[in-house]
Design brief:
The chain has 270 residues and is an all-alpha fold. Helices cover 81% and strands 0% of the residues. It is built from ten helices and no strands.
Length: 270
Protein backbone atom coordinates (compact mmCIF):
# COMPACT_ATOMS: atom_id res chain seq x y z
CA UNK A 1 0.00 0.00 0.00
CA UNK A 2 1.13 3.62 -0.43
CA UNK A 3 2.13 6.09 2.26
CA UNK A 4 -1.46 7.22 2.84
CA UNK A 5 -2.36 3.61 3.84
CA UNK A 6 0.15 3.59 6.70
CA UNK A 7 -1.28 6.78 8.30
CA UNK A 8 -3.53 6.40 11.36
CA UNK A 9 -7.09 7.50 11.38
CA UNK A 10 -7.51 11.10 12.66
CA UNK A 11 -9.38 10.12 15.78
CA UNK A 12 -6.97 7.38 16.71
CA UNK A 13 -4.06 9.64 15.93
CA UNK A 14 -5.35 12.22 18.37
CA UNK A 15 -5.77 9.59 21.08
CA UNK A 16 -2.26 8.24 20.47
CA UNK A 17 -0.88 11.75 20.55
CA UNK A 18 -2.74 12.49 23.78
CA UNK A 19 -1.39 9.31 25.39
CA UNK A 20 2.14 10.09 24.24
CA UNK A 21 1.86 13.66 25.58
CA UNK A 22 0.46 12.53 28.93
CA UNK A 23 3.04 12.79 31.73
CA UNK A 24 3.27 9.78 34.02
CA UNK A 25 4.95 11.65 36.88
CA UNK A 26 2.10 14.05 37.75
CA UNK A 27 0.37 13.57 41.15
CA UNK A 28 -2.96 12.94 39.45
CA UNK A 29 -1.53 10.21 37.19
CA UNK A 30 0.32 8.57 40.07
CA UNK A 31 -2.87 8.57 42.17
CA UNK A 32 -4.84 7.06 39.30
CA UNK A 33 -2.26 4.32 38.71
CA UNK A 34 -2.13 3.55 42.41
CA UNK A 35 -5.89 3.26 42.51
CA UNK A 36 -5.86 1.06 39.40
CA UNK A 37 -3.28 -1.28 40.93
CA UNK A 38 -5.66 -2.04 43.79
CA UNK A 39 -8.16 -3.93 41.58
CA UNK A 40 -6.34 -4.58 38.26
CA UNK A 41 -4.71 -7.98 38.30
CA UNK A 42 -2.48 -9.52 35.64
CA UNK A 43 -1.87 -7.61 32.45
CA UNK A 44 -3.53 -10.06 30.09
CA UNK A 45 -5.40 -9.41 26.86
CA UNK A 46 -8.64 -10.36 28.61
CA UNK A 47 -7.88 -8.01 31.50
CA UNK A 48 -7.08 -5.21 29.10
CA UNK A 49 -10.29 -5.80 27.19
CA UNK A 50 -12.29 -5.71 30.41
CA UNK A 51 -10.41 -2.75 31.84
CA UNK A 52 -13.21 -0.30 31.16
CA UNK A 53 -15.85 -2.47 32.73
CA UNK A 54 -13.53 -3.11 35.69
CA UNK A 55 -13.09 0.63 36.17
CA UNK A 56 -16.83 1.15 35.97
CA UNK A 57 -17.44 -1.63 38.52
CA UNK A 58 -14.83 -0.04 40.76
CA UNK A 59 -16.58 3.30 40.40
CA UNK A 60 -19.88 1.67 41.30
CA UNK A 61 -18.29 0.04 44.36
CA UNK A 62 -16.83 3.37 45.44
CA UNK A 63 -20.20 5.08 44.95
CA UNK A 64 -21.89 2.30 46.94
CA UNK A 65 -19.38 2.70 49.76
CA UNK A 66 -19.93 6.46 49.60
CA UNK A 67 -23.69 5.98 49.78
CA UNK A 68 -23.33 3.64 52.76
CA UNK A 69 -21.02 6.10 54.50
CA UNK A 70 -23.28 9.01 53.64
CA UNK A 71 -26.26 7.02 54.97
CA UNK A 72 -24.52 6.69 58.33
CA UNK A 73 -23.67 10.38 58.18
CA UNK A 74 -27.29 11.17 57.38
CA UNK A 75 -28.42 9.08 60.35
CA UNK A 76 -25.93 10.92 62.54
CA UNK A 77 -27.16 14.21 61.10
CA UNK A 78 -30.74 13.14 61.76
CA UNK A 79 -29.81 12.47 65.40
CA UNK A 80 -28.08 15.85 65.59
CA UNK A 81 -31.10 17.47 63.92
CA UNK A 82 -33.41 15.84 66.47
CA UNK A 83 -31.18 17.06 69.27
CA UNK A 84 -31.13 20.53 67.76
CA UNK A 85 -34.90 20.45 67.46
CA UNK A 86 -35.07 19.47 71.13
CA UNK A 87 -32.74 22.33 71.99
CA UNK A 88 -34.84 24.72 69.93
CA UNK A 89 -37.99 23.46 71.63
CA UNK A 90 -36.32 23.93 75.02
CA UNK A 91 -35.20 27.42 74.00
CA UNK A 92 -38.74 28.26 72.93
CA UNK A 93 -40.08 27.03 76.27
CA UNK A 94 -37.44 29.04 78.12
CA UNK A 95 -38.31 32.07 75.99
CA UNK A 96 -42.00 31.62 76.86
CA UNK A 97 -41.15 31.28 80.54
CA UNK A 98 -38.95 34.38 80.34
CA UNK A 99 -41.72 36.32 78.59
CA UNK A 100 -44.22 35.30 81.26
CA UNK A 101 -41.68 36.04 83.98
CA UNK A 102 -40.96 39.41 82.37
CA UNK A 103 -44.67 40.10 82.24
CA UNK A 104 -45.11 39.10 85.89
CA UNK A 105 -42.05 41.12 86.80
CA UNK A 106 -43.46 44.10 84.93
CA UNK A 107 -46.76 43.72 86.76
CA UNK A 108 -44.87 43.37 90.03
CA UNK A 109 -42.85 46.49 89.28
CA UNK A 110 -46.03 48.38 88.41
CA UNK A 111 -47.65 47.13 91.61
CA UNK A 112 -44.54 48.08 93.60
CA UNK A 113 -44.60 51.54 92.04
CA UNK A 114 -48.27 51.91 92.99
CA UNK A 115 -47.51 50.73 96.52
CA UNK A 116 -44.64 53.20 96.76
CA UNK A 117 -46.91 56.00 95.57
CA UNK A 118 -49.58 54.98 98.06
CA UNK A 119 -46.95 54.73 100.78
CA UNK A 120 -45.70 58.22 99.94
CA UNK A 121 -49.27 59.52 100.10
CA UNK A 122 -49.80 57.73 103.42
CA UNK A 123 -46.56 59.18 104.80
CA UNK A 124 -47.64 62.63 103.67
CA UNK A 125 -51.04 62.17 105.29
CA UNK A 126 -49.33 60.88 108.42
CA UNK A 127 -47.21 64.01 108.59
CA UNK A 128 -50.30 66.14 108.02
CA UNK A 129 -52.11 64.21 110.75
CA UNK A 130 -49.18 64.62 113.14
CA UNK A 131 -49.11 68.34 112.37
CA UNK A 132 -52.88 68.47 112.85
CA UNK A 133 -52.61 66.68 116.20
CA UNK A 134 -49.93 69.11 117.32
CA UNK A 135 -51.86 72.20 116.23
CA UNK A 136 -55.45 71.13 116.93
CA UNK A 137 -55.51 68.35 119.53
CA UNK A 138 -54.72 67.98 123.21
CA UNK A 139 -52.56 65.16 124.46
CA UNK A 140 -53.92 62.60 126.92
CA UNK A 141 -51.74 64.17 129.60
CA UNK A 142 -53.17 67.63 128.97
CA UNK A 143 -56.74 66.31 129.03
CA UNK A 144 -56.05 64.51 132.29
CA UNK A 145 -54.56 67.69 133.77
CA UNK A 146 -57.76 69.60 132.89
CA UNK A 147 -60.18 66.95 134.18
CA UNK A 148 -58.51 65.55 137.28
CA UNK A 149 -60.03 66.93 140.47
CA UNK A 150 -56.70 66.99 142.28
CA UNK A 151 -54.75 70.06 143.31
CA UNK A 152 -54.27 72.69 140.60
CA UNK A 153 -50.67 72.55 139.35
CA UNK A 154 -48.49 74.02 136.63
CA UNK A 155 -49.70 71.25 134.30
CA UNK A 156 -53.25 72.58 134.56
CA UNK A 157 -52.26 76.08 133.48
CA UNK A 158 -50.08 74.71 130.67
CA UNK A 159 -53.00 72.62 129.42
CA UNK A 160 -55.36 75.61 129.69
CA UNK A 161 -52.93 77.75 127.69
CA UNK A 162 -52.76 74.95 125.12
CA UNK A 163 -56.57 74.95 124.85
CA UNK A 164 -56.55 78.69 124.21
CA UNK A 165 -53.81 78.27 121.60
CA UNK A 166 -55.79 75.55 119.77
CA UNK A 167 -58.90 77.73 119.94
CA UNK A 168 -56.95 80.48 118.18
CA UNK A 169 -55.72 78.00 115.56
CA UNK A 170 -59.32 77.00 114.90
CA UNK A 171 -60.16 80.61 114.05
CA UNK A 172 -57.50 80.48 111.35
CA UNK A 173 -58.91 77.14 110.17
CA UNK A 174 -62.26 78.84 109.59
CA UNK A 175 -60.64 80.94 106.87
CA UNK A 176 -59.90 77.82 104.82
CA UNK A 177 -62.21 75.23 103.22
CA UNK A 178 -62.09 73.20 106.47
CA UNK A 179 -64.67 75.36 108.20
CA UNK A 180 -66.74 72.45 109.48
CA UNK A 181 -63.73 70.84 111.16
CA UNK A 182 -62.76 74.21 112.60
CA UNK A 183 -66.22 74.73 114.11
CA UNK A 184 -66.29 71.24 115.61
CA UNK A 185 -62.85 71.69 117.13
CA UNK A 186 -63.81 75.10 118.50
CA UNK A 187 -66.83 73.50 120.20
CA UNK A 188 -64.61 70.85 121.76
CA UNK A 189 -62.05 73.40 122.95
CA UNK A 190 -64.81 75.66 124.27
CA UNK A 191 -66.12 72.70 126.29
CA UNK A 192 -62.65 72.09 127.70
CA UNK A 193 -62.32 75.79 128.55
CA UNK A 194 -65.74 75.89 130.20
CA UNK A 195 -65.02 72.89 132.41
CA UNK A 196 -61.51 74.10 133.21
CA UNK A 197 -62.71 77.59 134.23
CA UNK A 198 -65.47 76.16 136.41
CA UNK A 199 -63.00 73.85 138.06
CA UNK A 200 -60.61 76.76 138.50
CA UNK A 201 -63.34 78.86 140.11
CA UNK A 202 -64.14 76.07 142.57
CA UNK A 203 -60.48 75.72 143.36
CA UNK A 204 -60.16 79.48 143.98
CA UNK A 205 -63.06 79.34 146.43
CA UNK A 206 -61.41 76.46 148.26
CA UNK A 207 -58.08 78.25 148.38
CA UNK A 208 -59.72 81.39 149.72
CA UNK A 209 -61.33 79.42 152.54
CA UNK A 210 -58.00 77.78 153.30
CA UNK A 211 -56.27 81.16 153.44
CA UNK A 212 -58.98 82.50 155.70
CA UNK A 213 -58.59 79.59 158.09
CA UNK A 214 -54.78 79.76 158.07
CA UNK A 215 -54.86 83.56 158.36
CA UNK A 216 -51.68 83.85 156.33
CA UNK A 217 -50.58 87.17 154.82
CA UNK A 218 -49.04 85.77 151.62
CA UNK A 219 -51.12 84.91 148.54
CA UNK A 220 -49.88 81.85 146.63
CA UNK A 221 -48.62 82.40 143.11
CA UNK A 222 -51.00 79.77 141.70
CA UNK A 223 -53.97 81.68 143.14
CA UNK A 224 -52.77 84.83 141.40
CA UNK A 225 -52.41 82.93 138.12
CA UNK A 226 -55.87 81.44 138.58
CA UNK A 227 -57.43 84.86 138.98
CA UNK A 228 -55.56 86.06 135.89
CA UNK A 229 -56.83 83.07 133.90
CA UNK A 230 -60.41 83.73 135.00
CA UNK A 231 -60.37 87.22 133.51
CA UNK A 232 -61.54 85.69 130.21
CA UNK A 233 -64.71 84.61 132.05
CA UNK A 234 -66.05 87.85 133.55
CA UNK A 235 -68.89 86.20 135.49
CA UNK A 236 -66.66 83.64 137.18
CA UNK A 237 -63.93 86.23 137.68
CA UNK A 238 -66.33 88.65 139.38
CA UNK A 239 -67.72 85.86 141.51
CA UNK A 240 -64.22 84.85 142.62
CA UNK A 241 -63.31 88.47 143.37
CA UNK A 242 -66.38 88.73 145.56
CA UNK A 243 -65.42 85.45 147.24
CA UNK A 244 -61.88 86.70 147.81
CA UNK A 245 -63.18 90.03 149.16
CA UNK A 246 -65.64 88.30 151.45
CA UNK A 247 -63.02 85.87 152.67
CA UNK A 248 -60.55 88.70 153.21
CA UNK A 249 -63.16 90.74 155.02
CA UNK A 250 -64.01 87.82 157.29
CA UNK A 251 -60.36 87.19 157.99
CA UNK A 252 -59.77 90.82 158.92
CA UNK A 253 -62.89 90.82 161.05
CA UNK A 254 -61.75 87.73 162.92
CA UNK A 255 -58.36 89.29 163.51
CA UNK A 256 -59.99 92.46 164.85
CA UNK A 257 -62.26 90.50 167.19
CA UNK A 258 -59.35 88.33 168.30
CA UNK A 259 -57.29 91.41 169.03
CA UNK A 260 -60.10 92.99 171.01
CA UNK A 261 -60.85 89.81 172.89
CA UNK A 262 -57.37 88.61 173.80
CA UNK A 263 -55.63 91.96 174.02
CA UNK A 264 -51.96 92.52 174.31
CA UNK A 265 -49.47 92.91 177.22
CA UNK A 266 -50.93 94.74 180.21
CA UNK A 267 -54.46 94.44 178.72
CA UNK A 268 -53.68 96.79 175.86
CA UNK A 269 -55.40 95.73 172.64
CA UNK A 270 -53.13 94.54 169.96
Amino acid sequence: RGPMATQLAPGLARKVKKVLETRADTPETIACLKGLSEFYGENTPAARRGLRSSIERRGLDINREFLEASGQAQEALAVVDAQLEGLLSGCRRIANVLDKSRERTGNLLDETARFNNNLAKIEERKKMLETFLVDYQLTDEEIAALRTDDQITEKFFSALARVQEIHGNCRQLLRTHHQRAGLELMDVMASYQENAHERLARWVQGECKTLAEEDGPDVPDLLTRAMTALKSRPVLHRYCIEEVSRTRHNALFRRFISALTKGGAGGVPR
